[in-house]
Specification:
By secondary structure, the protein is mainly β. The protein is 4% helix and 46% strand. The chain is built from one helix and nine strands.
Length: 141
């Protein structure tokens, strides 16, 4: 079938063929987790998240350059000091990897015209978060 995508850099009418990937959806996604109990009240863990390349929303024919895939490592720890008090820590994107999670086409001049009049790129990208540290203390009473 023919897909109508007016913002596609290659033109609005694109031929979609059987087997083309669905835009915005990585073909492969993997999540792995490993945990180690240091003691009965202390847990260490690591998580690996992988997403393969994906095409921009609006590129149903898969003709433009896709958004590259990415792999992230997250680390976490939980310590139960007592039945009522526990502490936890989490580091997401521990290696501070730059990555994009989503992309679509649009008209930048209609969205950002007053702020950035020189931008005319049709690419809108959802940037992944940088390294993030969270620390938590929980008291139950």
């Amino acid at each position: 079938f023919t897909s109508f995508s007016p913002m596609n850099p290659l033109g609005p009418d694109r031929q979609v063929n059987p087997g083309d990937s669905i835009p915005g959806q990585p073909k492969h996604q993997v999540k792995l987790r490993a945990e180690y109990s240091v003691s009965t009240n202390w847990l260490l863990g690591a998580q690996y998240i992988y997403a393969s390349k994906q095409y921009y929303r609006g590129d149903e024919a898969n003709e433009n350059k896709p958004i590259t895939g990415y792999g992230l490592i997250n680390l976490y720890s939980n310590y139960e000091y007592s039945n009522a008090l526990s502490f936890s820590m989490r580091i997401d994107n521990a290696l501070d990897h730059d990555y994009d999670t989503f992309g679509t086409y649009g008209e930048a001049d209609e969205v950002l015209e007053d702020i950035y009049p020189q931008i005319d790129s049709p690419y809108f990208i959802g940037v992944g978060h940088p390294r993030m540290l969270s620390v938590n203390a929980q008291y139950t009473f």
